[in-house]
Specification:
Rossmann fold, about 20% strand, globular
Length: about 120
């Protein structure tokens, strides 16, 4: 029996990055959606189940760590992989303290992402 691919939400305020990342995951048959901020991700979480969320750490209005904390209250079983394009050691440590599964640094290789997704099933 073929195992169903995970449902993934990409949360990033960089719309172009989020859209391209989403399209790449879809090309590998993942059920991927994207949104462009923490508040939108929290709202989506109320009505949808995502196995994995890729969340940008630095976003305006509500950062990725706060977004993760809020979504964990709604969907504690969600796996979080935090993304950053910056050297934000303090935020990286906080994300790991809040049980983010992984931190990936942009730009990243899609092979690394696919490997991480293989390990989250």
């Amino acid at each position: 029996m073929v195992q169903e691919k995970q449902s993934i939400l990409i949360v990033d305020d960089n719309k172009d990055f989020a859209d391209v990342f989403c399209d790449i995951l879809k090309s590998y048959d993942y059920k991927a959606e994207c949104c462009y901020g923490g508040h939108q991700a929290i709202e989506k979480s109320k009505n949808s189940d995502f196995d994995v969320m890729f969340v940008d750490i630095r976003m305006p209005e509500i950062d990725g760590i706060r977004t993760m904390k809020e979504i964990k209250k709604i969907k504690p079983e969600t796996t979080f992989i935090m993304m950053t394009g910056y050297s934000v050691d303090e935020m990286v440590h906080e994300a790991l303290k809040e049980n983010a599964s992984e931190i990936v640094y942009k730009p990243f290789e899609i092979d690394k992402i696919l490997s991480l997704l293989g390990n989250t099933q």
